[in-house]
Amino acid sequence: MATSEGTMVTQVEADHSLRRRDFINIAAVSFAGVGAAAVTLPLISQMNPSADVLALASIEVDISKIAPGQAIKTSWRKQPVFVRNLTPKEIAEANAVKTADLRDPQTLAERTKPGKENWLITLGVCTHLGCVPLGTGEGENRGDYGGYFCPCHGSHYDTAARIRKGPAPTNLAVPEYAFTSDTVVTIG
Amino acid sequence: MSFAWAKPYEPKTELGRWIDDRLPLPRLVYGAIGGGYPVPRNLNYLWNFGVLSGLFLVIQIVTGIVLAMHYYATADGAFNSVEHIMRNVNAGWMLRYAHANGASFFFIVVYIHIFRGLFYGSYKAPREMVWMLGLVIYLLMMATAFMGYVLPWGQMSYWGAQVITGFFSAFPLVGEPIRVWLLGGYAPDQAALTRFFSLHYLLPFVIAGVTILHIWALHIPGSGNPTGVDVKNEKDTLPFHPFYTAKDGWFAGAVLIAYCVLLFFAPNFLGHPDNYIPANPLATPAHIVPEWYFWPFYAILRAFTVDFLWIFPAKLWGVLAMFASILLLFFLPWLDKSPVRSGHYRPMFKRFFWLLLLDVLILGYVGGAEINAFNIALGQFASAYYFIHFLIILPLVSIFERPLPLPNSISESVLHGEKKEAAPIGVTPPGAATAAE
Amino acid sequence: MLRILLGLIGAAFAAALLASLGTDLATYFSSPSEETAEHRFHKEPKELRLASDGPFGKFDRQQLQRGFQVYKEVCAACHGLNLVAFRDLHALGYSEAEVKAIANQWAVEVPTVNPDTGEVATRKAVPADRFPNPYPNDTAARAANNNALPPDLSLITKARHGGAAYVYSLLTGYQEPSPELLKEFPDAKPGEGLYHNPYFANLNLAMPQPITSEGQVTYAEGNPKPTVEQMSKDVSAFLVWTAEPKLENRHRYGIATIIFLLVATVLGYLSYQNIWASAKRKVAAKGPLDPANKAKRQRASKKAGMKK
Q: Which residues of A fall within a CB distance of 8 Å from C260?
């Protein structure tokens, strides 16, 4: 064969110790790896809710027109929310129940704000499989306990929207909310 | 792949052996881009652009898929959905600019890759198939890019769609029905938009498939090199990994810097302001121009202003010439049959190559410039030269030119001390020693 | 055979092009087209320097607030901003309460449906809403503006050549048509409902000068004087923000990314040199172009009796 100049590539010996001069290769590959990892960050974060969706994460509800005994249905984060002005009779009924008897033990006080126990604000989503319970509108069936009734599989909620009868496992969820004034509630 | 000294794949771990016995995919990758693929050792940086094209295809696919999670393909919602991405989606502005500028860089890189092929005779035997598959990829890229540009539904999107689909009506009889069939209507509207979205999502994966065929076809004879001389023995080659993975890697970093400079600091430089105006079918923009990578073809299209030869109106000439300008490239291996591959050893060919490059740059300028008498004439000259170059000049050059003598082998050309010079193919120089290894 | 056929096709295209060239040249020399008034008298935008210019540009929030004020008091009557939401104004430095107030007090209300009667109604805007359009639709907009449609301004600085400089030049460029223009192109005189402005592509536009007098908008204490120049500059800067609210993020990420890539590329290059050091290359991959080789080639070809 011809000249000696055309030597072959010498493979890096299978040393157990990395030679100093291979450090640069490792450094370069590591940097590229860090870059590749950094690239995935925007790719993943773009799937999180966008700014306009987050803007609707919090709503204000005007409760000045809701008389005692009345309730309204509104929408928050694309889900129904029930805002009810409890009558004193309904409050008394709720407080008379022994919490130990409840499937999901909670008192009315735990589900309302201090000084505003007549305002019951809950999600309008049955905790069984997600239907919207009846009871907010005039003349709607309020179930055996005078609260809400879910027609899908027969869950009955009481005046504090706690599950009393039927397949639902927990009480209607209470979202995060705050009274910004006596007539306006901010939910979320 | 047929080099005898190619290192065979040897799995080093139990897991490696287990996989190799059941699905020889690691073996395939090793033999294609790993230590098992011998590559000529004298490649210059023009050989990096194939891998760079692949990189930008991946960038486009990844950014495109995430953009599609937020885009609405409706005529009333499309424009606003793109602005929604720019303003509301987390990092949406980055993804959108990455995709728009990625398309431009994909074309820049592919054009350099094609011109490398033209200069070094990469289209010649036995790589004709590689060349033709590459042209198929290019055509698919053009279709994909055109449809992608329509999706934001800006003024240029809409009117560009009008003009390009209008080409088809140039064909007699079948033209108008084909145009209406393509659009699903009489003008670009909802039907056209949704189908363009569907196809724009599909074609890049078709491109990926054809790219695999393109690489496969290349790996049968192996890569070419700047001398055009075939690989003769182990001294001529280096394993792809780590030599060319390292070279491709660092150069990709440099190209990505250029890409990021555009993306982050001049993201609309290669675009057109009119596409930030929502599409209005009742108001035509003052100057309808496609994106820059279509400008040479746009120049050829508009160069024909006279109904030459009675049966062919000027518009039809323009459309036919535009298609012909790409289709003639398929015939290049048969137009240019010189046995010498590389332009380095073909002085006459080399001069005409530079003329072609200048010509294409002029065509590109004319395609995007304003329409006046000078630019039209320039475009006509440049278009005429383009056809004459490929269809008349190259065949004649390949018959009549005297190429320079080729080096004996790649390793001789790379290293000092070549004692022997080979004669060009087909000539036995009087008294000269014949090439012997 | 194939080459002859292809050669003929090439000749046909070349001939058609020659015919076109010939005809066009003949037309040009016999009846050259006149230069249009727009072409001759249209002016390129004046120079405008903004804090957001350049790769390290940042918004001048105080200027943006002034610009928003100009938009609100001068432009919003006719021009919408329908891609911008009120909550986006936080970026200008307004507090939550201020943004809520701006939305609540916005002159145009947001279309909605009366929950009791189902009739079309309007309600006050909340921060989550986008700026409502001043007109219910394009036809109404045209009817109120002499058949001209005032464009939405959200993207105007990206939708025009010259960007913010163009907007600024337009706002400050209203003038009487020059005597040369009127002499050569008497038709270029602005007709009824049009106003001359050489920075506009067609020289005459349907919008009358919107910012006409100093103090048209009253700026708060600590701001520059509200001259026509200053107000035009401020609103142009504001419109750069409406078109590119993420400009500062973009610049920040850009600098970080490019620094990272520079380091990565340098490391990559060093690694490449390190790996290739073991591949003997006396002539750095330029075999055929090396002068010594070239000389050798020339000697060999002479020896072989071939002309160069």
A: 31, 35, 38
- Give the structural domain span for C293: 280-308
- Rounded-to-integer distance, Cα C4 and Cα B132, Å: 21
Q: Catalytic: which of A16, A128, A153, A156?
A: A153
Asked if B291 is an active-site residue, the reply is yes
Residues 151-210 of B with CB under 8 A from C: none
Interface A-B, measured as beta-carbon pairs within 8 A, has a size of 60
> Is C196 in the same domain as C264?
no
Who contacts B348 (Cβ-Cβ below 8 Å, separation ≥6)?
B397, B400, B401, B402
Top residue of C2, C21, C131, C247 to mutate, by most chain B CBs within 10 Å, is C21
Question: Where do the structural domains in chain B lie, given as residue ranges?
Answer: 15-299
Could you tell me if C174 and C286 lie in one domain?
A: no
For the segment B180-187, the average pLDDT, to the nearest whole number, is 94
Give yes or no for residue B311 having a pLDDT over 80.
Answer: no
Subunits close to B (at least 3 CB pairs below 8 A): A, C
Chain A residue with minimal CA distance to C262? A31
Chain B neighbors of C282, CB-CB under 8 A: 414-416
pLDDT of residue A14: 44
Please report the pLDDT score of residue A99 as a whole number: 87
Q: What percent of chain B has pLDDT over 90?
A: 82
Q: Which CATH superfamily is domain B15-299 in?
A: Cytochrome Bc1 Complex; Chain C (1.20.810.10)
User: Domain A54-187, what fold?
Assistant: Rieske Iron-sulfur Protein (2.102.10)
The C-alpha angle B273, B279, B281, rounded to 5 degrees, equals 130
> Of the candidates C196, C146, C203, C190, which has an alpha carbon nearest to the alpha carbon of residue C175?
C196
Contacts of A22 in chain B (CB under 8 A): none
Q: What is the pTM of this model?
A: 0.89
- The whole-number mean pLDDT for each consecutive block of 10 residues of chain C, a chain of 308 residues, reads 90 91 88 82 94 94 97 96 97 95 95 89 94 95 94 97 96 92 86 92 93 93 94 97 97 97 96 87 53 72 67
Coil, strand, or helix at residue B388? helix
Distance of CA B57 to the CA centre of its chain: 11
Cα distance between the two ends of chain C: 31
What pLDDT is stored for residue B60 in this prediction? 98
Q: CB distance from B419 to chain C under 8 Å?
A: no
Q: For residue C73, give the DSSP letter.
A: I
Is any Cβ of chain C less than 8 angstroms from the Cβ of B77?
no
Distance from CA of B384 to the nearest CA of C (A): 5
Point out the catalytic residue in the list B223, B325, B383, B398.
Answer: B223
